[in-house]
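=== Structural record ===
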Amino acid sequence: MTVEQEAPPQHPNGPRTFVTMIRDNAPMPQQVLDHLLRLESGRHPTLTEIRAALGLDLDISDWARVARDAWPERGQIPDDEDLARVIDAMYGSMRATRMVRVAIGESGPVATREHEPIRIREDEELILLAFASNDTAAGVEFSAEAHGEGIGGFVEPGRTGSGLLNAGRMHRGSYLLPLLVTAGGRATTIDLPIECAPSGMLRVRLLDGATGEAIAARVYITDAIGEPAPPDAHLRRDRNESAWFHADGAFEARVSGRARVLIVRGIEYMPYEEIIDVPAAGERALDVRLERWVDSKGDGWRSADVHVHLHYGGELLLTPEDASLAQRAEDVHFMNMMVANQGTGWVHDEPYFEGQASPLSTPDYMLRWGEEYRNNLYGHMCMYGIDELVPPIYSGFPLSEHYHDLPANAGAADHCHRAGGTLSYAHPMFDTIALDRVFADEHTYSVEAKELPVDAALGKIDAVDVMSYPGNELQTSELWYRLLNCGLRLAATAGTDTFMNTVDQGDFSNPPAGDRVYALIDGDFTVESWCEAVRAGRTFVTNGPMLSLEVNGNIPGDDVAATAGASIGVVVEAGSYVPIERLELIVNGEVVAAAMAEEAGQRAILAHEFKPAASCWVAARAIGPAHRLALDTHVFAHTSPVYVSVDDQPVRDAESAEYFVDWIERLIALAARRAKYPDEASRDRVAALFREGQSYYRAQLA
């Protein structure tokens, strides 16, 4: 409904509404988008406001489906009536127990809602979403009142509108709360069933167990009513459908009776979990001291998440301060924030790019904006440590400024290096690396790393994101192994690809750094020294286990000179607060030794000797079952390789080389068939680049 409201301060990514979510995702002519924005304006609160009011009670998961269903047929130019139908369908798809629907007909308003009672804690404010659809031929004045509070507005003929009504604080008990709805001079009342439970205030201070200093952390709370949180917290669900929020040093939340509290700080602190009784109408104060079980930075290792989106679709409007809080709460030393497009030419968070560490950084926590360079056919690349954005930021997106699949990713990778950056391929594989699947027409725009073998052969990239929330670690590892088998040296990195402003989107609403990469720093910790360690291959990736590898006393990234038949000694150790099952030693992609974990899965050691007949690479991985605190499909960690050079010969494997010759042949054919180029000369230049990469592998078959 159209209401008078003060315009909020301009936000680089705001406002968050259903139409701006379409803007992010669906290519369309600018004039159509302008019409959509105009037709949506002033009729509903923003999604940010609705989410803040209703919390996890709000379900907006159907918006994209109903928008597609309501959109005019392909080729038809939508008029205002068509576009209004799309907008009203999206807002009509919202669901919540605290939502009241009002159908306004010629005989007056009819109010309905879901049958479940509204469950709330004593002294909490009840905020309702009143959603009106005007099915008459005339505009109507609409109002809703409850508990002495009310809202009002105007709903145009054939349109919808909504408003948020704060009915005030509720008192304990089970009762009916009357909501008076008036439209066009006619009134109706709907009784809202309320179940209000006694509650008290839980006040918690978060402290470092060793220093006593206040620290940030991730918090999960459940009670008899649901999932309480501080009023100003961004409550989100992780992949396990558990609700969490970040707190900075302390928090207070109203809870009902007995509450289960889980507090987590990254992967180096032991989690705290207790059941806490909070007296009704009283309070419970608590100091929680989180204890480290390991201190990586004391040994020179610094953690990072190289792929974090502050905004990417989603309904929340965030700030760099939110990113800083998340970084400290997850205890991740470097967080590489993404400037990136999504499905259109709209680029998220570009104003936050500075070409240097954010002023919010501290000596222990480096926050910096980088870039996700995106082409959905060639693949996506994470760029970090860049002092300028790499143009064109994206390519190959319909109805955008960069419609054509130009340049190939290799050109952008070169620009990244000229800008002082380091880069890795993001989420390389989602499923099996079988070529028939990777290059099937239906997977043309799967955003998997199809150009990776070309760019690796040409020396364009530094690392591979072996771990990511949407990726498949084991299949990505198999692809990475084959590249290493062809004599290429690529570090293992990790980028979660989390969308910080989404609330309930599975893996993508996980917190940052559930998957992370550790790099061994030489000297002071800076973004530059961290990137240098990645380029040197001194890394391991993990979602829980801490992993070490020594090969004749050498660590990942090192070279070991050997002669054929000489004995090579390997020691692998893993410690973890989430249970692991086994350690595995990998040589040229094959498991050559394994050791089962001990101490309830929290410790494992593997010692092994072998006598290589030819040059090889050596790495280790830890694997365990799924665990609620490992925000991935299973517990996993993997080191980068140590390189063993036997008689100064390169690592070679004909089967792996042949695989990539075939891969690139299929890539060339797919690009010829499906990629968009302005002319044949451009197509030929890209094909020639791919052939150049292919020649590296062909030479190994000679």
